[in-house]
Amino acid sequence: MLSSLSLNNVALFKKQTIDFQSGLNCLLGKSGAGKSIIIDALSFCFGAKSDKNLIRSGETSLRVDAVFTDVPKEVEEMLKEQDIEISDELIITRTLNLDGKSSIKINGFPVSVRVLQSLTEMLIDFCGQHESVGLLNVNNHLLLLDKFGGQNIEVLREDVEKIFQTLSNLKAQKKSFGGDEKERERRKEILSFQIQEIENANLDLIEEEELRQRFEFISSAEKIFDKVGQSVSKLDEQRDNVSSLLYDVKMLLNSLSNFKNIEECRDRVENCYYEIKDIAETLNTIKSESEFDQNELERIDARLDLIKSLKKKYGSSIEDVLDFLQECKTELGNLENSEFELEKINRKIEETEKELETACQKLSAKRKECATIFEKQIMEQLADLEMKNTIFKVDFTQTECSKKGFDTVKFMFSANKGQELKDLSKTASGGELSRLLLAFKNTMLDKERVQTVVFDEIDAGISGHTAGQLAEKISNISKFTQVLCITHTPIVASKANAFVLVEKSVIENSTISTARTLNPDEAVEEVAKLIDGGSVASKTALEHARKLFAE
Questions:
Q1: pLDDT at position 397, please?
Q2: Structural domain containing residue 535
Q3: pLDDT value at position 323?
Q4: Whether residue 261 is found in the same domain as residue 127
């Protein structure tokens, strides 16, 4: 439950911590005192859209801290998935700056708005006069009915979801074979062309670099031929002289070979002799191969263009192109052998569709069974709230099977005898929606997971005996879950277990709202003021208030 809420620089609140108890907590105070600001702050803390107008005038930022105790296991498990530690308390902190930047922390760990909002449905439910737990949203009606059906519906719905997923997988598998026969044939033609085009190229992983080097060499053949030719000529001209010179030196040094340093020099001279001879032969070979060949140059250029074209179509490298070739062969092989597999898949799809239809029928039958009970309980609750002639109906329409079944559900409503049933969202007034909300809340008491329900002036426009019945319904809800309720109705306030008085005052030309917990005598006096409608409670109003508390 929500144990405390701290507000720092939130609208009229400077710095305020409000403690709450289990059961029914009533927020009292004059209109404009700041009660709704507390609800707005709590809503902001749970992921509502950031509004810079919520920042107190003259301040640059606001902060809201909500502290929860006895959090449900589902919340603990979810927080563990986010690597968030939790002990006895769950502390949600949200800040907002004037530049619009907001930060969110849970027990000191930063989280996203999405994570924060996912906690809302497990911790708190905000119910204003026109919010009514999604009653006006047709998309929520099936969810509400299934929630009412509980485990019986959940088991059948899980069966439908499982079968639907199996069917989806089979259809995806069928699609992987290329769709219908025409599409498969078209795909086979494309694959065959691509395979033939790549295979005809007879690619080699290392040939591209070799071709580029050969292309560059042939392109430079004329220059190579000229320079190498001159070098060979020079060597040829001086070869005999150089050879004779080196030979004479070697022979002269032979007689001194016993001396280590001289022997090394002789060996080096001998090496020079053979090295010059080898250079001359190598240069002659290069010269003979460096004749410019236009035809070879064109063949290499065409080959490089082909490789470039294949890379552009099928991959950024020859290796990628060859990988693509293998993929095409695999897919073509699957397509060519697909008739037998497709026949098996089609049989499975047909069987699974029948299985899904049967599961949807079972789910729909159970939903209709639950809907009859649901309708009866809602109308009984509404009768307690002075809506005895109300008709509430769950309307079913069958659609295509999905993971939710084949039911589309819509709540129909008629408030007066003889009035035709219409969509709930189109016919219920504000006061009727308030009572519908309470009827739903009381009917779903053992189905809801939230720990705290917030009622924001749900009793607006309701008085007399109906107000008394409404108070009983709210009180009944508070026996199962914590309730925070803003009210101006004395009988509703009298059912509370705890009271928070919100007051507004002007201090040094600055308006400040404060909130404080009331003791029992103060609570009676505030309820008496509601009865009198003034700032001071009369003796008669006080006596009436005491009677209300005593009931």
A1: 93
A2: 520-551
A3: 92
A4: no
